[in-house]
Design goal:
The complex is a heterodimer of chains A (118) and B (188). Chain A is 38% helix and 15% strand. Chain A is built from 4 helices and 3 strands, in the order αβααβαβ. A 3-stranded antiparallel sheet of chain A has the order 2-1-3. The longest helix of chain A has 14 residues. With 188 residues, chain B is of the alpha+beta class. In chain B, 54% of the residues lie in helices and 12% in strands. The chains are: A alpha+beta (118), B alpha+beta (188).
């Protein structure tokens, strides 16, 4: 278990997943609002599609057009980014929305992950 | 196998051996998906599916399972939550669309066509049917390709006929051609 230092007043509003010990160590009279993760809740989340040797280039383009409603040109460009650069950011938004996008892409067999943008 | 545009969709014609091969593959896929102990995930035991690897990781250790249901998060805890929320639904989706394709194959009418005058079974697929078929073909390719440890520049011509897996390479290539044709017909 990590040593936990006393939280500064501004940090108290957000109890991160890694700092649950902080919350339990505080006086019981203090109300602690527990929200999910994130040092900066304003940073958007992104969905990334990774290159893999099985998914066909034509199919990946088709999936981007179908799932996101992207034009053929945009879908092709993203597919080529995946193919040549190894990955591409295919959508941006809230964490919940990105989870939905990743789930949908997994349903199509694409290798997709989400993370907070940095 | 013949695939051609038909109206807004596609016409898929296959010989008896092809229909049987595809039906066998789909049956095996459905069996694998329904038998996989990874379904235990809904009971909060995700990652303990017998093949689970290192502790602290929610991702499955079996490569085929990991490819069909990839990790969404690098963080193990977030990943566990995501997996609990999504995997069983994705699995059901895969099983249902494979079963739908299986019953279409079983009900496909037989027609005498082609120069050889051999009977072929024919499927007329609308847009949504095409999408379902290309996803099912993709699922099959993910399973077979992962087992074969296929690489991006796989050279099928160099596969040794004595290789016990050589037939799988042929099947994989056949499924790939079928899927690619279907996508191209669908995209117009």
């Amino acid at each position: 278990m990590e040593a936990v230092t006393a939280p500064s007043p501004t940090a108290m509003a957000i109890a991160t997943a890694t700092a649950t010990a902080t919350a339990t160590a505080m006086p019981e009279t203090e109300a602690v609002e527990v929200t999910e993760v994130s040092s900066d809740p304003d940073r958007p989340w992104i969905t990334i599609v990774w290159n893999d040797p099985i998914n066909l280039m034509s199919y990946v383009t088709h999936v981007f057009m179908t799932v996101f409603g992207y034009s053929k040109a945009k879908a092709d460009k993203l597919m080529l980014d995946v193919h040549t650069k190894g990955r591409a950011v295919v959508s941006t938004g809230t964490r919940e929305r990105m989870e939905l996008d990743v789930e949908t892409l997994h349903g199509y067999g694409l290798w997709a992950t989400l993370q907070q943008d940095d | 196998m013949r695939l051609s545009r038909s109206g807004d969709g596609a016409r898929l014609q296959m010989g008896a051996v092809e229909v049987q091969t595809l039906a066998d593959l789909l049956t095996e896929l459905v069996d694998d998906l329904t038998a996989d102990p990874g379904t235990a995930g809904t009971n909060g035991t995700t990652g303990t599916n017998g093949t689970a690897g290192t502790s602290g990781s929610a991702a499955p250790a079996d490569p085929v399972h990991a490819r069909l249901f990839p990790a969404a998060y690098a963080d193990a805890e977030a990943e566990r939550g995501f997996r609990e929320m999504t995997e069983s639904g994705l699995r059901t989706e895969r099983v249902e669309r494979a079963q739908r394709c299986l019953s279409e194959l079983a009900g496909a009418p037989s027609r005498v066509a082609g120069l050889a005058r051999r009977p072929r079974q024919e499927l007329l697929l609308g847009d949504e049917d095409c999408d379902r078929w290309m996803r099912v073909l993709n699922d099959l390719r993910l399973v077979i390709g992962t087992r074969l440890e296929i690489t991006e520049d796989e050279d099928f011509a160099s596969v040794d006929p004595e290789d016990p897996q050589s037939f799988s390479y042929v099947v994989y290539g056949w499924l790939t051609a079928m899927q690619d044709n279907l996508v191209r017909i669908r995209m117009g």
